[in-house]
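Progress against Task 2.4 (sequence-to-structure conversion) is shown through the following example record, which the project officer requested during the mid-term review.
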Amino acid sequence: MKKLWLDLGNTRLKYWIVDNDTIIAHDAKEHLKAPNELLLGLLGTLASFEPEFVGISSVLGDKINTAINKTLQGFNVPFEFAKVNANHPLLTSHYDPNQLGVDRWLQMLGVVDRTKKQCVVGCGTALTIDLIEHGTHLGGYILPNVYMQRHALYAGTQQIAVKAGRFDSTELGRTTFDAVNHGVLFGVVGAVRAVRADYPDFEITLTGGGADMINVQFGGELDIETELLLAGLRRYFA
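Structure tokens generated for the chain above:
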């Protein structure tokens, strides 16, 4: 049975087409704040695979989700939006389910193993850090990512006019340009280091578009699963 797993994030639309759990097509595109328009443009391509079900994760709010719902009704394929289930057989949570984003929850669901202690670090528009102990979500942290931090400095100060540059070092900066770019990366990496130090027996898994950038600062020794959310959708609708 062919299925379409669709992830509507803050900046990108991602999808997997699977046939009996084998991924036969995938893509990720920036939606430039117009996800429904992008989806409309992709419908012909997606329809060519003849999926029989569509599972969706969306963090885009009720107004956009209503438009997505209307678009998918014209697709003539059964579809369903995933919702947080704090009592899922694989993953329970101490978190208020009304406060837990479906993206964070699906990322955890995509990797959870009830025999392990785990830490899932989502490296997307926000940096999310979530701790799971034997299938129970203990809680976590949400931080702005490096781009949001740099923009806050640029927008909120008169003298720090840094809005570009690579995030590739946490060494001491010797110019304002380097101090900003190295500093915001230092903060994000420092958060992961702190969790690693406080919870040394938890296995860390990075996911999301910024995972490689962070893992470089750990010598590449952390595990990366680039599409945990889509893997979580597959488990959710299993």
